[in-house]
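Protocol step 4 of 5: obtain the predicted structure for the target chain.
Materials: sequence only (see below). No template structures provided, no constraints applied. The aim of this step is simply to have a reference model before the mutagenesis design in step 5. Sequence pasted as it appears in the construct record:
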Amino acid sequence: MLAQVADNPGEPFDERRAGLDHVNFAVETQADVLAIAPRAESRVGEPVSVKEVASAVLLTLRDPDNIAVEICCSKAESG
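Step 4 output (structure tokens):
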């Protein structure tokens, strides 16, 4: 659940401050990550890249508040 704090002074997001660092959405397969990439590109208006690391396939974006949003498929789960 996401919630808005009414008494936020309006300061921009800073991942170095205590609190939220990023939001991660898990998908089942690498194909799911790859299918999301073109749609994400059309929304953000710039190229996005899918990264493959040792344990996962990742697509990382920034939302309008500069919070990292990650779409992730664990290699162990996808086979």
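Step 4 remarks: The chain has a mean pLDDT of 84. Residues 22-78 form a domain with the Signal recognition particle alu RNA binding heterodimer, srp9/1 fold (CATH 3.30.720).
Proceed to step 5.
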